[in-house]
Amino acid sequence: MATPSGTRRDDGFGGLLAGLFFLAAGWGLLSLTLVPEWRANHLYAEGRCVLLAKRLAEHPRDVGSYRAEFLIRYTVAGRELQGWTSDAARDHTGFRWTSEHLLGRFTVGEAYPCWYDPADVTRVVLVRGYSWWTCGLLLALVVLSLLAGRAVFGRLRAARCAAGAAGGVRSRQPSGDFLVARRVSSGIPVGVVPPPGERPGARAPVIGRAGKAMTGGGPVRSPVVGTRAPPAPRQQEVRRPDHFSVRDDGTRLRIRFCWVWRRFKGVALMGLAWNGFVVPWYWHALRDDSPFRWLAMLICLPHAAVGLLLVYGALAGLLNRTVIQVTSESLTVWNGPVPWWGNRRLPVAGLERLSCHKDATGVQRGWVHVYGVHARTPGAGEVDLVTELDGAEALFIKQELERWLHRAGRGAGPGSPVR
Fold it and tell me: Is the model's pTM score more than 0.70?
């Protein structure tokens, strides 16, 4: 989508729609096993049966997929029935040992409880409950649905805010013809700004023969030559964020904040959803005796690597903090205790100015812009000090650093505002 200035803006709606499509496909896949298992657990009636035989059945087309099957005889309303059954989903699995373990739980000739569908008594199960596949996929889809819902509501909120801001600007800014007509009707020439506190048209000046302007209150300066410009607006003080701590003992300034407020929740939910599938996969693969278990582990190896990175990121988001310390000699940024990039030390004498703006990478986290605080040095150009911030956090850090450096007599030049 192109903006009025001609630049291309990536709204991200294509990726969001694609994610919602795959999420819907995942829920459809889950329903194939979740619905039958739920019906067996809540709607089926309980009865008694006798186990006549059992076997390990292999899928006729999918070689290497197995299912435990049982031949039972049971009675419903005085009617004796007999047939092969399994679990509610009647699904095959590539892990042979799970089916063999299920077969080992039952002995031929013994009586066991069974459950049948009152609407169709030929549908009977010997094993109830939910499989590990259903539980893992359900957990992953719930987490991904929460993240997707947050992204959708964020997009809608951003669109509403943008529409409201555009509407407010149009309603608060009259047209140029209206401004010219109002200035002329109030007795003020076009382009003249009235003095502060004076209502336009309250004292329309009258020009005498000598060229002096006179009003009922005495002589005044000509509205064309003697007008005063409005005072420059004062820079507003940026309030300290609640999760920031600032310590200034006169010799050094120390700003500290923890990551858990911004970087833990998202990566932790994603890691929980991702590893909720990877961990059961490897657990079953390690206990399988089939010759394909090493192939299954090899195929899932990249997914395991991503899962480990997500766990590492979640630990960093939970435990890490950023400490910015400035003295008369140096400015230091430290991220820890979990090792992370971004640690740096800069001499104060080489700082030209500080600035904060949107990250140069153009990252936009769905509905929240990401900002960073940067320092300009003669040799290295612009150096990133702290990134992954919102606008208020970036402005506060820049404000405190500039204030302390100016007070210490080593101030960097004023930086650019957030843009």
Answer: no
